[in-house]
Structure formats: C-alpha cells, structure tokens
Write the structure tokens for this entry.
Amino acid sequence: MEAEWQADRSLLRDLIHTRPDLSLKQISAQLGRSYNWVKKWARRLATAPPEDLEVLHSRSRARQTRPAGWDPLFCGVGDFDTNFLSNLASRAS
C-alpha cells in the first residue's frame, strides 16, 4: 500500500511541476484523490527540493511525546474506593 501512496505522491509532484496551469481541484480529480489530500501533499512537496525522494514517504503516525503522567487527584480515587469498601465491610459486621 505504501508503494501505491508513494507513486501517487510522485505523480502529484510531476503534475505540479509539468502542469502549473492546473488547479489543486483539477489535480485531485485527475488523481482520484481528495482535495484535502492533494492540498496537504502539495504543501509538503513545495517545502522539499525537487529531487528529494524522502519527502514521498509517509510520516509516522506514532505518538512523538510521552503521555502525561497520572493526575494525582485521579490516582486518589482508587484509594477512596478501597477505603469506602473496607468501611462498609466493617460496618456490616
């Protein structure tokens, strides 16, 4: 699948350089891709040198930062439940 996406991006780059008279909407219709996809990749391709092949690769969708730690208030909820249940058990006896 990645190879097909790279081929579409390469074709987009070629169309942008060889047919500057076409609008992004016309290019999207020609490629069979959405307008937003063409707009996003046209912006990315414009920032890279014309011979750069790395720009054709997908960017990672993985998280780039570590998740935030647990909220101390939220962590205390488990203690409350434990204390509440033990109090109930001691009252029942």
